[in-house]
Amino acid sequence: MTVSISSDDLNRIRADFPVLSTTSSGVPLVYLDNAATTQKPKCVADRLYKFYTEEYGTIHRGVYQLSQQATDFYESSRETVRGFLNARSISEVIFTKGTTEAINLVAHSFGRAFLKAGDEIVISGMEHHANIVPWQQVCEFTGAVLRVVPLQDDGSILMSDFQSLLSDRTKLVSMVHVSNALGTVNPVSEIVKLAHGVGAKVLIDGAQAVSHFQVDVQSLDCDFYVFSSHKLYGPTGVGVLYGKEDLLNRMPPYQTGGDMIESVTFEKTTFAKAPARFEAGTPAIAEVIGFAEAIRYVQTIGFDFIQKQESLLLAYATEQFEKLSGVTIIGTASEKASVLSFAIDGVHPHDIGTVMDDLGIAIRAGHHCAQPVMKRFGVPATARASFAFYNTTEEIDRLVAGVKRCQELLT
């Protein structure tokens, strides 16, 4: 197949990412580990540098100009995220350290406060460890029960299987939007609707979704949505918890300390409303501001372009891999995002990753923090190539050549 994206457009975009012009192992770098973390456009690095060198001050606490300016930058970044998600209010946008902390916040705050023995939490068989372990901990603490929707052979779930697990005992559904290990895109709108039908709250793990297509939390009607900056071309150490405002204000704080209180005496403390009640201490100010810059950059590129380019890349890579003998694609659902996980007969994925690195190709090899997925497909690990809008078909050709080189050396 032929990719119809203009080469001039793609070259202009790639020039925004300086690392893509570097070398690895003496050859031009091919970066295909975007599901783990995306590279950063120069505008994000420039924004961080400008803040640290010209504008730095702590927020919410100072009357001097630097502090007030930093506060304005920080809170305007919250508005940028609100608009990106189409949340109703900035009070529904909580800054966290990342997706993992956001899920843990909901698990500890909502889960431990509102769940009890006999209640049920429903997840799927494709979840990242960060959307399994916190709920196991909640179940141990409360006596709630964890239920798991099984995976089909193509890496999808059947909605009939999901619906069969729902009952009046179901109090929370926590489901990934896009699988990091398989690329499967779940029908989250239907999941939310069915879960709400039995009175359950819904958390959607959007860590692998927000970089690939537009997310509208009001349209989804989910109760919580979580994602990370560093998978959306922004800095590390920052994530977002979206939550419906009335629900957030009924949840106890996850952490306590400065900047999240209304008043403190030695006898009693009263807490601020969301978002402040969930942002104790000094946050990652510069990184939040850099994250907002990354969102603006993505919006400049546009999801129409992003979806078109990434769909073409995934289709091209799948087509090329299906021609290879001795290679199995793990995860073949009809609805997928930009992930191609694979196994080579007789070759351990870690060895695949090492050979690829020698060829200047960065892919991920391992269980991808999804060990139950690996067990379901009977493999110890997979090699995973994951694509972003700045990747090219030529890079996929180098990946395919790398697979052939692995077979020559290791089989």
Description:
This protein has 14 helices and 17 strands. It has 411 residues and is of the alpha/beta class. The strands form five sheets. The chain has a seven-stranded mixed beta sheet with strand order 4-10-9-8-7-5-6, sandwiched between helices. The mean pLDDT is 97.
Could you outline the blueprint of secondary structure elements for this entry?
Blueprint (H helix, E strand, L loop, with lengths): L6 H8 L8 E2 L2 E2 L1 E2 L10 H14 L9 H21 L7 E4 L2 H16 L5 E5 L8 H10 L2 E5 L9 H7 L4 E7 L11 H10 L3 E5 L11 H4 L3 E5 L10 E5 L1 H4 L12 E4 L4 E3 L13 H17 L1 H20 L4 E4 L8 E6 L4 H10 L2 E2 L1 E3 L4 H6 L5 E5 L6 H18 L1
State which percent range the strand residues make up.
Answer: 15-25%
Structural class: alpha/beta
Number of strands: 17
Q: Describe the main β-sheet briefly.
A: 7 strands, mixed
Number of helices, counting only DSSP H or I runs of 4 residues or more: 14
Oligomer: single chain
User: What is the CATH class name of the largest domain?
Assistant: Alpha Beta
CATH architecture of the largest domain: 3-Layer(aba) Sandwich
Low-pLDDT segments: none
**What's the rounded overall pLDDT mean?**
97
Helicity level: 40-55%
Main-sheet strand order equals 4-10-9-8-7-5-6
Q: Report, as a whole number of angstroms, the end-to-end distance.
A: 30 Å
Rg from C-alpha positions? 22 Å
CATH superfamily of the largest domain: Type I PLP-dependent aspartate aminotransferase-like (Major domain)
Question: How many domains make up the coordinates?
Answer: 2
Shape: globular
CATH topology of the largest domain: Aspartate Aminotransferase, domain 2
